[in-house]
Amino acid sequence: MIRKRVLARGEVQGVGFRYHARAQALHLGLVGYARNRQDGSVELEIEGREEPISRMLLWLQTGPRYALVTALEVSDIAAIGESEFQITD
């Protein structure tokens, strides 16, 4: 298992980004969380196998229909063995 921290920047708040990201993560069998940040970005941590994580990162480049992702910052972090994907504020 691997885990990534992702910061999605652009028009990513107020467009259902976290909820669509959760649905995509669940579809891919990933766990972690998504939360809005005060600077207008969305922070995610995603954990799972490498191939589904790669697919999630591709999806995050555009996000849901009304989002406009201008940048993704991705970093490797230690897997922690979570069991679900949460949306937090």
Automatic annotation (TrEMBL):
Domain of life: Bacteria
Top-rank EC class of the record's enzyme: hydrolase
Keywords: Hydrolase
Positions of the Acylphosphatase-like domain: 3-89
Catalytic activity: an acyl phosphate + H2O = a carboxylate + phosphate + H(+)
Enzyme Commission code(s) on record: 3.6.1.7
Annotated active site: R18, N36
Entry's Gene Ontology molecular function annotations: acylphosphatase activity
Annotated InterPro entries: Acylphosphatase, Acylphosphatase-like_dom, Acylphosphatase-like_dom_sf, Acylphosphatase_CS
UniProt-listed PROSITE patterns: ACYLPHOSPHATASE_2, ACYLPHOSPHATASE_3
Family membership: Belongs to the acylphosphatase family.
Protein name: acylphosphatase
Organism from which the protein derives: Cryobacterium glaciale
Lineage: Bacteria, Bacillati, Actinomycetota, Actinomycetes, Micrococcales
